Hints:
Elements: H1 2-14, E1 17-19, E2 24-28, E3 33-38, E4 43-47, E5 50-51, E6 56-60, E7 63-68, E8 77-83, E9 89-97, E10 110-114, E11 119-121, E12 131-137, E13 148-152, E14 156-160, E15 168-176, E16 179-191, E17 197-200, E18 205-209, E19 214-221, E20 228-232, E21 240-247, E22 250-257, E23 266-274, E24 277-288, E25 292-295, E26 302-306, E27 311-320, E28 325-330, E29 333-334, E30 341-348, E31 351-358, E32 367-374, E33 379-389, E34 393-401, E35 404-411, E36 416-422, E37 436-438, E38 442-448, E39 455-462, E40 470-477, E41 480-487, H2 498-525, E42 534-540, E43 543-546, E44 565-573, E45 577-585, E46 593-601, H3 607-623, E47 632-636, E48 643-647, H4 654-660, E49 665-666, E50 704-705, H5 706-725, E51 728-729, E52 738-741, E53 745-748, E54 764-766, E55 769-771, H6 778-783, H7 788-803, H8 817-824, H9 837-846, H10 857-865, H11 870-873, H12 880-886
Helix pairs in contact: 5-7, 5-10, 7-9
Binding site for ATP: 572-579, 599, 647-653, 736
Domain Immunoglobulin: 22-97, 108-191, 203-288, 300-389
Binding site for Mg(2+): 544, 737, 750
Amino acid sequence: xxxxxxxxxxxxxxxxxxxxxxxxxxxxxxxxxxxxxxxxxxxxxxxxxxxxxxxxxxxxxxxxxxxxxxxxxxxxxxxxxxxxxxxxxxxxxxxxxxxxxxxxxxxxxxxxxxxxxxxxxxxxxxxxxxxxxxxxxxxxxxxxxxxxxxxxxxxxxxxxxxxxxxxxxxxxxxxxxxxxxxxxxxxxxxxxxxxxxxxxxxxxxxxxxxxxxxxxxxxxxxxxxxxxxxxxxxxxxxxxxxxxxxxxxxxxxxxxxxxxxxxxxxxxxxxxxxxxxxxxxxxxxxxxxxxxxxxxxxxxxxxxxxxxxxxxxxxxxxxxxxxxxxxxxxxxxxxxxxxxxxxxxxxxxxxxxxxxxxxxxxxxxxxxxxxxxxxxxxxxxxxxxxxxxxxxxxxxxxxxxxxxxxxxxxxxxxxxxxxxxxxxxxxxxxxxxxxxxxxxxxxxxxxxxxxxxxxxxxxxxxxxxxxxxxxxxxxxxxxxxxxxxxxxxxxxxxxxxxxxxxxxxxxxxxxxxxxxxxxxxxxxxxxxxxxxxxxxxxxxxxxxxxxxxxxxxxxxxxxxxxxxxxxxxxxxxxxxxxxxxxxxxxxxxxxxxxxxxxxxxxxxxxxxxxxxxxxxxxxxxxxxxxxxxxxxxxxxxxxxxxxxxxxxxxxxxxxxxxxxxxxxxxxxxxxxxxxxxxxxxxxxxxxxxxxxxxxxxxxxxxxxxxxxxxxxxxxxxxxxxxxxxxxxxxxxxxxxxxxxxxxxxxxxxxxxxxxxxxxxxxxxxxxxxxxxxxxxxxxxxxxxxxxxxxxxxxxxxxxxxxxxxxxxxxxxxxxxxxxxxxxxxxxxxxxxxxxxxxxxxxxxxxxxxxxxxxxxxxxxxxxxxxxxxxxxxxxxxxxxxxxxxxxxxxxx
Length: 892
């Protein structure tokens, strides 16, 4: 034991010693430092266990001195003094302190590690005081669950058992004097323990014309130093060169042929190999004498469709070189993209697909449609015959005259006409069991029978029998029929009393007709309930074609059980119906209870008003949901009167809301903080004349400022932008038609059902209609034209209402001939009292006399977004589901 201690003592005496002492030395950036190694024997200085040939080392007796001038990041690391004879060594770690870079700046940014290996990210601290060194992803996402690592400020962060999901960008993070410090970014790429992955630079089928250049490239990932990559080609008669380029952890091989011939056709294989195996991909090269276009055969070039259906005509082809012309034409006239016919072209390699979609076909659109395509060497055409079938129509009939009746029908295909007779007066003879078809004395002539479009047929029947009282003309085509009836009377001898009785009956009939005319006139003059929103089907210049809302589909998934509605107070009532607050049980889930608004007609409603309410339901279901319109929640159309269930907006219409808040309005300029935004006030309630029930005082507590007015403007513009995207025109945009719900969310609605326009001063008699003239654009007033641009004009008037806190537009000006003259001459309202300059500029642009110079709602949204705060923008987030619950709590 004593011998062991003796030798240990000698070993300690023989180990070299380094001064300054300690495990590490910290030196400032760009300063000089020296390390002294004392030893009786010859020593060598090492840095990171490698010789320091570039450093200044001097021997002074038993001390070997290493000197460094202007220390930089490259001088950081572990320095060791090793005896050459015994191999004994002592070490010290040198930090080069850089205040601007707590970690040594990266020299290498990309690292490649094999799957299952260990790798180190060299994030070396320049200050030994850095603590809590750990790893983070560059994008802040959590680290992979299986990632394990060890951290040292002297060596960096070492990842163990690397896996493919570790691949990504990392950064080292530590704490220095209470502050978080970060290193540069490191990109880790993981090489799978598998053969290389090959990616081709071109499609697997390459077409060329003789004389063109061929260039093929393939790249591989998952490489290492042992990988090989090459192209294997068929017998090539000319010089070619294969380039292999190492790029980081990727490799690329390129084959170039200057001018190809037919002998160069064939398969070209790219192979890549590493220690795990070989991968290969093939490119097939075809060489042609000249370019071509080959159409795929069309199975059926003759199409028969019903009017109102949509049809897609599709052509598929292979072509080389790429075609420079794709076109569709109808009867020789080139077609362009419109809402009625949409043209799309797609390509994949040398395969091309062109499609013409004909939307809601009309009979007049029957005819020949031609697809044309050409490149520098070839031109092809493909024709389609489109026949649009229509329901037959009886366009005229007359008789009996001179013992003959006449019936004319048209349709495509050309209808067939048959005659039936029976004894029953004014009955459909063809439906009777003893129906008799009249085939004698019938003359039928086809008047027109064009290849496309409607054909016309005329049929005449000579009446030879007096034993029947009714004749029926039946026109049929494609399984659909139409008919008309003729009443045939026997020849009888008049009775003595016939003439005075006839006179009496005629007089009574004339009086009755006069009464009916007066009643009909009054009924026509009476305003009709109709949905204001119109959905556009097509635009032809300045002419808009609207979709008939009765033709829109209705999805019965909207149906809601009537017995799960409990009705409450009436929210609004008009000439045709009312809106009632109701509680719906199980609207979204079985156990939910939701407050809703239910639209319904009065019991005395006519068929046209019932159809209008059904049209409103169909339009709402067609539009879909948006936070800034009053959304459809359900409907009851079966087993009783039609009920339309919509969102309940608990704080009434915007016009009355603004008027109630005048006394509590806090005016701010843009950018000014509203310090009293949450002050609770109790203004006096006002009566509402705009249909929706007045709010209670307890529901009207918070103050209102300029930011709120901007919020209302922004939300309505967002809602109108949504309607425009659905090709929908509002036609009655005003503050009275905007509802507010919890959180001051504005929702656009159509209040026609619950408003009596005959008593509303905002609707002025013009012709035989009552119109909101002060909100209408000049083209709507004078030309009865309603467009997206006329809605923008109305939006400008709405902005004036908002920033005047509910004043009536054109104050003090009655709607008379002078008013119409001023509008024609370009009169525009001045800025309202509380409008910022930027908002009045938007109003004025909405009132441009040229409709096409008015901004779109999308542009208006962008302009207002520049003025409002981020918190106001958040109002438009999809919170509809929360608002229904919150409406019962009170303050908006």
